[in-house]
Amino acid sequence: MASGVKVADEVKDLYNEMKVKKTDADQRERLRLVVFVIKGGYIVPGQIYREKDLEGKDVYQFFLSLLDPKQCSYLLYDCHYSTKESAIKEDLVFVMWAPETAPIKLKMEYAASKDSIKKTMTGIKHELQMNDLADYGTRDNFAEKIGKGVTHVEGLPACGH
């Protein structure tokens, strides 16, 4: 069921910027996290965080802090992790956050609009639906969801590894 919500052009532009990793660009300017919200019939960027905004922070914990218990959102997270086989991998993770504590009308609107935003983000490897921090709110659960053998998320060990 389509919701009638349209995706703003900036969403695709931000996705493309995150998808293409420019090695010659200033790494501090690199996009790491974008929160998207529905406003005025459009899915638009809400908050945008670059590498320089997250220096000295645990990026995974910062990602979790963006999950408002009363507000739905979509997030695009440039997650850095390690596996037993490889040093560091970087993948985009698309998250639909629809907490149980958000108004039902809001949850329905975000659920109905998810396909619209996903169509602008072709090639996403990891997609998570989160309704509660218990879903993937631990580094261990999150690591398990993004792949087999993930030992570290954002440079810190996933428990059990």
How do you describe this structure in short?
The protein has helices at residues 9-19, 59-65, 104-119, 133-136, 139-146; strands at residues 6-7, 31-39, 42-50, 73-83, 89-97, 126-130, 150-153, 156-157. With 161 residues, it is of the alpha+beta class.
**Secondary structure tally, helices:** 5
Going by helix content, strand content and strand pairing, the class is alpha+beta
What general form does the structure show?
globular
Distance between the termini: 41 Å
The H/E string reads EHEEHEEHEHHEE
| Fraction in helix | 25-40%
Q: Regions with pLDDT < 50 over 5+ consecutive residues?
A: none
Query: Got a strand count?
Result: 8
* Rg value: 16 Å
What does the largest sheet look like? 8 strands, mixed
Task: Give the percentage of residues in beta strands.
Answer: 25-35%
**Average pLDDT figure:** 90
Describe the protein:
With 161 residues, the protein is an alpha+beta fold. Helix content is 29%, strand content 32%. It contains 5 helices and 8 strands; from the N terminus they run E-H-E-E-H-E-E-H-E-H-H-E-E. Strands 1, 2, 3, 4, 5, 6, 7 and 8 form an 8-stranded mixed beta sheet that branches.
Features:
alpha+beta; 8 strands; 161 residues
SSE blueprint:
Layout: E1 6-7, H1 9-19, E2 31-39, E3 42-50, H2 59-65, E4 73-83, E5 89-97, H3 104-119, E6 126-130, H4 133-136, H5 139-146, E7 150-153, E8 156-157
